[in-house]
Amino acid sequence: MIAWTIYITFAGAVAALLLPRGISRWVALITTSAAFAISVAAFFSNIEFAQFSTIVRMPWVPVLGMNYHLAVDGISATMALVTGLTAVSAVLFSWDIADRPNEFFFWLLLVVGGSYGVFLSADLFLLFVFYELVIVPKYFLIAIWGSTNKEYGAMKLTLYSFFGGTLVFIGVITAYVTSGTLDLTRLATFAFEPQLQAWAFPVLFLGFAVLAGIWPLHTWAPTGHVAAPTAGSMLLAGIVMKLGAYGALRVAMNIFPQGFQMWRNWIAVIAVIGIVYAAAVALRQRDLKFVIGYSSVSHMGFVLLGLATAQALGISGAVLQMFSHGVIGALLFAIAGTMIYRRTHTRDLDALSRMSLSTALPFAAFAFVIASAASMGIPGFSGFAAEITILIGAWKAYPFAVWITGFGMVLVAAFTLRALRKSFFGDTPRLAGNVPALEPITFPEKLGAGLLMLATLAAGVYPKVLFDRILPAVEAMRIFK
Amino acid sequence: MSYLQLLRLASPETVVVVTTLVVLAIGLRNRQSPGLNILVAVLGLAGACAAVFMLPRSAVLFAGMLVISPLTSLFKVICLLLAFFTLLMARNLSSRNHAEYVGMILLATIGLMLLVGSEELLMIFIGLELLGLSLYVLAAFEKHDIRAVEAGLKYFLFGSTASAFTLFGISILYGMSGTTALAAIAQKLAGMPIEPLLAAGVVMTLIGFAFKIAAAPFHLWAPDAYQAAPVTSAAFIASGSKVASFVVLGKIVLIGLAPLHGSAGWHAMAGGWMPLLAVLAALSIVIGNFVALVQTNVRRLLAYSAVAHAGYTLLGLVAGGREGFSATLFYTTIYALTLLGAFGVVGAVRREMGNDDIRDFCGLSRRAPLLAGCMAIFMLSLAGLPPLAGFFGKFYLFSAALRAGGNHGLLWLVALALFGSLISLYYYLIVLKVIFVDAKQETAAVAAPQLDLLQRATLLALAGAIVLFGIMPQTLVSRILAALA
Q1: What CA–CA distance (Å, rounded) separates A186 from A201?
Q2: Which of A302, A293, A279, A282 is nearest to A332 (CA)?
Q3: A145 CA: distance to closest CA in chain B (Å)
Q4: Distance between CA atoms of residues A265 and A263, nearest Å
Q5: What's chain A's average pLDDT?
Q6: Pick from A365, B70, B81, B87: CA 20 to 30 A from residue B237's CA?
Q7: Would an 8 Å CB–CB cutoff place A173 in contact with chain B?
Q8: How confident is the model at residue B80 (pLDDT cuts 50, 70, 90)?
Q9: pLDDT at position B194, please?
Q10: Does the beta carbon of A199 lie under 8 angstroms from any beta carbon of chain B?
């Protein structure tokens, strides 16, 4: 059933392109909602989450051993869920897009459909097809509908993604040619020689990690996020960065477990540097979207640290963090991009601090407080549940890293609070005449933000419902055998 | 062997020859009849296609001068198809001598078919010359356009020099082996050490083909010919000529020179044609991609990207074997279809704007969404992005190459090719950026490109084929593999 998320989304993309421009946004909304509903239903159904169980399997190019093969386990189901959630709210936050809406929703739905495809593929070639499919739509979304320095940001992001894709390409054909199969389940039982794993693992892992924003190849992320339109940043932070982390887990670590053991210390070092470095850089940014962009890099550092622990708990925490950051990142970008920037036409923190936005846009202020709390890792929100799990997992493997990461978390709290204070609770005394007349927050915006806030709260208050599905799937992975 | 039987086995070529004569005769009587010329030519190609399907499954005439096998039949059909699309594009050529133009395309098509359908060096050379001479004329056809004439002359001078090398190389091979049939040459050469004379023969033979496929450093004619020749001629040079050259190059190295393959593996370099082609491939990928970065004219950009693509395509031959050859054939076929389509779009823009610099494409997505959409498909397929055929072609080529060079010996070449395509994405995206993003200098006075139904259908068919072969590559791959069995 969950396979229909892919078909519905791609059909919706074509429909949005060809149907009259007035209804393209409705097409997009119906499509993403339907796919989201399916992913929710699949998430709460009683399918076998501990195994990567096949949904569809058809020969595609039999002479070369390629199959159209989809499968789902707890990790895939979780990622499909966050994809659906982010997609719906991204459409809601682009409700008033006026310029070429047909093409906009076409590209947007391609990104969403390709992401569902990556999360559900059980054939390495199929996964790679979906993975590369996502690259070009991002370029057009940013270059046509973006803002600040959009052509540069779009090109940088695209070339970084394609660079990562190139490394992945090398890893994929190496695995394919050596083992003679493309089936992920069979690849996960094939014994590759340690010498091969020693070089193939870092190539494959790094290729995926570029998209996850690994330091020092993270610079595309802030630039791209800033340049992108709101829905673009939401998809980038919410889904696309997760594609990289998911690929690193599902493909690189699962195919080359010995290579992973050889390199995991380095991954942990880089992850910790990324967490602290990005948080420190975010502290110095003047543009609100840059702050959020660097915070994304910092949060994705937690995902990489979680993966590097090689503990069931740490890796589950990483998957949970992917979900959590998908929701929080999308929410933060939605507030900064649509609720603030579209109304005030500035994202400069000093300028915003003179506007007393908390009086003008109370709902936006409320949402931003929630998002900031979740982002800082306040208990009760999903960010806390995810990061504490990662740190518990990391404590056994890398106690020293936990200390440094703790310092990084202080920095995260610092820049988040700084952004929160400057953007909404500025220095200006709240005089009656000082409140700028801004268009109130619209209903679709409230709906989209409400959806995301609900998700982060739900996952924070009751993370068990996610863990019950993620943990068995993680424990079934090859590195624990 | 009676003449009747010979005529039957050579019927596709014969049909095209007759068609050529008919078109030329029409042109003598009636100078202003482009529609009629095209109609007759297309009917002739259809007849030739039907004749190919009626050929026996396999036959060998005169020690390989004319070979009929599933492979030759498949590629005769593909060459006819490419000529068909070229003719559809040639409808708008505003020349007084339209019939001669069509006749030249048909003559070149005969050259293609002879090349594809022969496994004997003399016949291959005759095919090369027939093809080459027709293409020189096609390139310089607009004889009042000084740049087209320059392009034609350049093409002719480079081409004839390369032909001379090839002829010399062939004569040395003949001297060493005492035969001109590829299979017999392979038998004679087996076990023979690579003497200097033999090496000279191999290198000289390959130079001519490196010129035909525009592999660096024998690519210098390509930018001028692609840019200044009439669009249709450039399209045919870039597509049909390339496909046939790769087919025959593959046959020469994989059949005739099979014993001399050597090795291009990183730790196991050994003398032979494999390292030679590997060096050509590496040079082409690097030079083609880097020089394409700075081009401002779309056709020139396509020419340098063609150099790079020749490099990728050579990877399959370096890999060798059935799988490598099939990957090369798949890739070159897809590439030819893509480039025909891209030139179709360029031609439409050129008719409207008078030129084909990148800035002339500015805002095309608003003026002509269909053209822009097709161009996006062609460019992204060239860049190798899914779900388009170019992506599958690259995956097939690179995995075949990696598999062939035991112990990942060809990884260096594969990695180089992959980073080449990373560079290439930049310039393809620049073209698409101009089409879809830029709209600043757009003036209201510019009319949308005039496209009649037939041209729309042609472009849509080509774009559809690229998408179709990307989603269902099985349809073509299994045919090629079956033909190579």
Answers
A1: 17
A2: A293
A3: 9
A4: 6
A5: 88
A6: B70
A7: yes
A8: very high
A9: 80
A10: no
Integer CA distances (angstroms), B67 to B64, B71, B178, B180, B341, in order:
6, 10, 20, 14, 31
List, in order, residues 6 or more apart from B382 with CB less than 8 Å away.
Answer: B305, B309, B335, B338, B339, B342, B390, B424, B428
Rounded mean pLDDT, B206-235? 89
- Residue B270: strand pairing partners: B263
Beta-bridge partners for A59: A67
Give one word for A394, left, alpha or beta, with left for phi > 0 and alpha for psi -120 to 50: alpha
- How far A334 CA sits from the closest chain B CA (Å)? 24
Burial pattern B331-360, b for ≥16 Cβ within 10 A else e, equals bbbbbbbbbbbbbbbbbbbbebbeebbbeb
Report the candidate in A214, B5, A3 with the shortest Cα–Cα distance to residue A11: A3
Structure tokens belonging to residue A146: 């973006």
Q: CA–CA separation, A249 vs A243, rounded Å? A: 10
The pLDDT of A313-341, averaged and rounded, is: 90
Contacts of B431 in chain A (CB under 8 A): none
Does A65 score more than 90 pLDDT? no
Which of B380, B402, B425 minimises the CB distance to A173?
B402
User: Which pLDDT value is given to residue B315?
Assistant: 92
The band of A434, judged by pLDDT with boundaries at 50, 70 and 90, is low
B378 contact A CB<8A: no
Instruction: Calculate the dihedral angle through the C-alpha atoms of B283, B284, B286, B290, rounding to the nearest 10 degrees.
Output: 140
* Euclidean distance between CA atoms A32 and A27, whole angstroms: 9
Question: Domains of chain A: which residue ranges?
Answer: 4-480
- What is the per-residue pLDDT for B280? 92
Burial class (CB in 10 A: 0-12, 13-18, 19+), A399: exposed
Yes or no, beta carbons of A177 and B402 under 8 Å apart: yes
Residue spans of the domains in chain B: they are 1-260, 267-485
Neighbours of A68 (CB within 10 A): 16
pLDDT at B31 (0 to 100): 72
Say whether pLDDT at B217 is over 60: yes
Task: Say yes or no: A151 contacts chain B, CB-CB below 8 A.
Answer: yes
Question: What tens digit of pLDDT does each residue of B432-473 get?
Answer: 998 988 875 555 556 666 677 888 888 999 999 999 999 999
Residue pairs between chains A and B whose CB atoms are closer than 8 Å: 74
> Which of B392, B397, B418, B426 to mutate: most A Cβ within 10 Å?
B418
Residue A19 is predicted with a pLDDT of 85
What is the ipTM, given to two decimal places?
0.90
Give me the amino acid identity at A333. F
Judge: B437–A132 Cβ closer than 8 Å, yes or no. Answer: no
Which CA distances in Å does A348 have to A125, A355, A423, B70?
44, 11, 9, 68
CB nearest to B386's CB, from A132, A151, A163 = A132
Is the CB of B425 less than 8 angstroms away from the CB of A162?
yes
B290: pLDDT strictly greater than 90:
yes
pLDDT value at residue A342: 83
Cα end-to-end distance, chain B, whole Å? 27
- For residues B252 and B118, the answer to whether their CB atoms sit within 8 Å is no
**Phi and psi for B297 in degrees, rounded to 5?**
-110, 135
Structure tokens at B235: 């399209």
- Taking every pair of C-alpha atoms in chain B, what is the biggest distance, in angstroms? 71
For A218-243, what is each residue's pLDDT tens digit?
888 888 888 888 888 999 888 999 99
Q: What is the pLDDT of residue B351?
A: 83
Residue range A443-473, pLDDT digits in tens: 888 898 999 999 998 988 898 888 888 988 8
Contact yes or no for A109/A101 (Cβ under 8 A): no
> For residue B404, what is the nearest residue in chain A, using CA coordinates?
A177
Nearest to A151 among B392, B418, B437 (CB): B437
User: Do A438 and A343 meet the contact criterion of CB atoms below 8 Å apart?
Assistant: yes
What per-residue confidence (pLDDT) applies to A429? Answer: 58
